[in-house]
Amino acid sequence: MGLRDSLKTIALENHMDFFGVGSVDRWAHAPAGRRPGDFLPEARSVVVMGLRIPEGSIESNHRAYENGLRHGIFTYMIFGYNKLNEVLDKAAMKVGLCLEEKIGRKVYFIPSSIPRDEYLMMGEMSNRHSAVCAGLGEFGWNGLVLTPEAGPRVRWVQLITDIEIEPNPLYGGPRLCDRSRCRTCIDMCPVKAFSEEEAVEVNIGGRKYAYSKLNRPLCRCGVTGLAAGTAGRLQEVIPEGSVIKVEDWLAIAVRDNRWNRMERIASMCGRCLTTCPAGGSPKGCLPSFLRKDGEQG
Length: 297
What we know:
The protein is built from ten helices and ten strands. Helices cover about 30% and strands about 20% of the residues. The strands form four sheets. A four-stranded antiparallel beta sheet has the order 1-2-8-3, sandwiched between helices. It is α+β, with helices and mostly antiparallel strands. The longest helix is centred in the N-terminal third of the chain and has 31 residues, at about 70-100. Strand 6 and strand 7 form a beta hairpin. It has helices at about 5-15, 35-40, 55-65, 70-100, 125-135, 185-190, 215-225, 245-255, 260-265, 270-275, and strands at about 20-25, 45-50, 105-110, 115, 120-125, 140, 145, 155-160, 195-205, 205-215. The chain has one domain (about 5-165, about 175-280).
């Protein structure tokens, strides 16, 4: 058994559903300061693992948004996000310790959620881009990683190592986002943060990808439950074009409902993830309005 397969076995034994490896050259076009070599100068490979979000957690998001059961958002925040991050970080630790203790290599851990620059609204090193670099899926117009098995309903973690591990090929299966026929992410976003036409283009391993340019401060108004139409308490009506900079979001955030501040422990939105039809059903756990006649979700 080769090293990649051995590490994959450890990942699967620790509840991971997805496992892939990317060579560091695939991050060549990532922003400066967010490439594997910026964290570990000897970096040769990046290991990426993913955990499917439980169907019941996706359903809880639907209940919160579609059925007026606001309290359903707490199940989504905890079991669709926080607890999954704990499992992901534990699996990364198991794989990383194998590389360090048994094989004698160096590992730099990128936690599944916490490391981020709040002002720039960027993560330490993008989990979603890394999942594409490791061949585990492709970008949808929503900017999330779409997998054949679960669409975007996967949480990710990664670690960087100084040993060269055979990389997985980039995803080469059927297209998972049909933008000519689907605009679910655009229509379902409570704050309309996705551009319908303007795209971000990225180059990974010589392959070009494009996804919607996201208004990040406006998206944050949804994620933090500030805007009308979200599961938050403030229900701020945000005039079109009024939130462009991070300071615009902050000006609304300081007015947040104090009870909402105490309740919010993770994303209070997630609609671009929970309603995307990629990945099918029932594993995709689509909301009722996206299911075909007779299909269970």
